[in-house]
Amino acid sequence: xxxxxxxxxxDADGPANFDDPLSxxxxxxxxxxxxxxxxxxxxxxxxxxxLIGAGAVALAGAGxxxxxxxRPPAATEQxxxxxxxxxxxxTRLLDTPxxxxxxxxxxxxxxxxxxxxxxxSVSAGINALEVSLxxxxxxxxxxxxxxxxxxxxxxxxxxxxxxxxxxxxxxxxKPPSTGTPGQATRPYARFESILDAHASTHTLFVDPxxxxxxxxxxxxxxIEKRVSAPTESIIAKGYCTSIPWATESRSRGYRGWGFYxxxxxxxxxxxxxxxxxxxxxxxxxxxGASGQWAGVRSxxxxxxxxxxxxxxxxxxxxxxxxxxxxxxxxxxxxxxxTAGGAQ
Length: 343
Prior knowledge:
Blueprint: E1 68-70, H1 80-86, H2 90-94, E2 99-102, H3 115-124, E3 128-135, E4 141-143, H4 150-153, H5 165-169, H6 191-198, E5 203-207, H7 216-226, H8 230-233, E6 234-239, H9 243-251, E7 255-260, H10 262-267, H11 270-275, E8 281-285, H12 290-297, E9 303-308, H13 311-319, E10 324-327, H14 330-333, E11 337-339
Parallel strand pairs: 2-3, 2-10, 3-5, 5-6, 6-7, 7-8, 8-9, 9-10
Antiparallel strand pairs: 1-11, 3-4
């Protein structure tokens, strides 16, 4: 086993029940996510190179005007029963002005993509959740944004695809980039566990990241085995040129969210027009100029601002016309928001 593996194996947590994140110890905070202070990290080198075939017409989606309100900060964490009512499945979610999605489960607040992070986001009153997926060498899909475990666990050159789930499951997600870097570490979460915990009440935006398209069927098989209304519980998420993922998911009846960066649209204006047909929902970084936001909104689809770290950034995104918010800063932002008067 490579030496890098051992550097993150030992931690103060001790044994844990991986199916119950609250049994591992409690603290609060932000997440070790490089995108926590800015836009969603880009998929990698591909843009035009991954476009395949002629574009089919995307599922129609109607944008909604965002009705945004502020309320005083909650004195205590939202009760579980109130949080459950905040969950939205896809049709209702996209009809909710100013809806909220927890990026990696709240990547500025808690160890990203852990069951603990998702549970805390739900308790805070989030409407939907986002998960990026990686695949172990023995075929287990789990929450991980990167191809390696290095950023999240402090290892060195540990490629997820080269290790078994048992080896990965022995590691912990560390929180150095969160608002409380001293909080407890958390185990990685299997995709099945995330679905079982939340897919019946909250839309999950699912991104297989660097996975080979030949493996997409495995992801859908897991979803369709465990979720009673999969096309309502799941929205396929990807960088705007992730055409194989967009095409495969749409062929199965799923909506898709394709996200863009304002600086890339400025450098290559045809990027938006050449790819937006593949997606039923669009995304733009919250720091984009008003003209760029107007251009994306002119496509006539809901637009989600990403990745929003703070209440100030959320206000700015809503003022630009965002229909929804992909939030890394869940704890700071959600208690102050009302989505269309509900939540």
